[in-house]
């Protein structure tokens, strides 16, 4: 099968630089509005192990779809209104998490994300109008507005799917590097060439690897940051010993060097670790 009819439209959307002015201003506003690191980590889903936004959207989506189903059933005249109210209220945390994730994306992703958000704003307006119509006794009008909201929300969801899967927004972009490593133990360098207490980048084939050493123990991480492929080898090392962390120079994602665990976002996934062993003074790595 060929590409979907929508792909040329989506490709043009990714390249529409006219959106960048609005996008850049909104990015600055979101960054300025959400400053506390703990709040940023909470909304990014750093504590969860993957982005929080897709989890939060399940509540409004479930409420809105359930409303549409109940509207088709006889004898359910007033039942959908509470569901609709729950869905509208539940959009607030989902929107907050989504905007923060969006603010840390590349421009091509932000262009698609901006239209995704715009569609959802329109859908929310239609659902709010639907709820008000139902509460004023105009049930038929409320149903029509609800189905209009579901249609627009479906468009927004389609754009969100493109952002997440076609553009890899929110995925761990370092993980594919693991598959390019050799399956068998392969020497990457000598132990003596890895400075103690500092990071160093070495290539294994064409995969850059971040090495960190304390005494005779070495840890190895994929060097490209899983958030947006930033060069961790150029990042600052904070802390000491096996509590030390590396901070991505692009967006500030922070990972523990001993196990790759994410300490601060915007990354929500751990940085991929590479199995390592030291034999006869040589550092060897292989695929997990």
Automatic annotation (TrEMBL):
The keyword Transmembrane helix applies. One of its GO terms (molecular function) is dioxygenase activity. CDD domains: Rieske. Pfam families: DUF2231, Rieske. Keywords: 2Fe-2S, Dioxygenase, Iron, Iron-sulfur, Membrane, Metal-binding, Oxidoreductase, Transmembrane, Transmembrane helix. The chain crosses the membrane at residues 81-100, 112-132, 144-165. Its cofactor is [2Fe-2S] cluster. Residues 186-285 form the Rieske domain. Belongs to the bacterial ring-hydroxylating dioxygenase ferredoxin component family. This is Ferredoxin subunit of nitrite reductase or a ring-hydroxylating dioxygenase.
């Amino acid at each position: 099968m060929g590409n979907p009819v929508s792909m040329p439209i989506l490709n043009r959307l990714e390249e529409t630089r006219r959106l960048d002015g609005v996008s850049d201003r909104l990015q600055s506003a979101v960054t300025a509005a959400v400053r506390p690191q703990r709040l940023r980590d909470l909304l990014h889903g750093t504590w969860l192990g993957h982005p929080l936004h897709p989890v939060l959207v399940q509540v409004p989506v479930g409420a809105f779809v359930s409303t549409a189903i109940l509207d088709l059933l006889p004898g359910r005249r007033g039942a959908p209104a509470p569901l609709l109210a729950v869905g509208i209220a539940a959009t607030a945390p989902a929107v907050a998490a989504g905007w923060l994730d969006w603010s840390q994306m590349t421009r091509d992703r932000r262009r698609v994300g901006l239209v995704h958000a715009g569609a959802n704003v329109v859908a929310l307006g239609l659902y709010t109008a639907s709820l008000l119509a139902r509460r004023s006794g105009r049930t038929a009008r409320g149903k029509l507005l609800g189905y209009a909201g579901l249609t627009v929300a479906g468009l927004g969801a389609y754009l969100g799917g493109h952002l997440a899967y076609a553009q890899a927004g929110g995925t761990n972009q370092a993980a594919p590097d693991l598959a390019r490593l050799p399956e068998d133990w392969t020497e990457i360098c000598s132990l003596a060439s890895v400075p103690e207490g500092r990071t160093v980048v070495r290539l294994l084939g064409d995969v850059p690897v971040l090495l960190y050493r304390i005494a005779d123990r070495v840890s190895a991480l994929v060097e490209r940051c899983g958030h947006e492929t930033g060069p961790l080898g150029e990042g600052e090392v904070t802390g000491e010993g096996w509590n030390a962390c590396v901070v991505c120079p692009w967006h500030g994602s922070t990972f523990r060097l001993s196990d790759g665990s994410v300490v601060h976002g915007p990354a929500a996934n751990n940085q991929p670790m590479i199995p390592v062993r030291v034999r006869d003074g040589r550092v060897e790595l292989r695929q997990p």
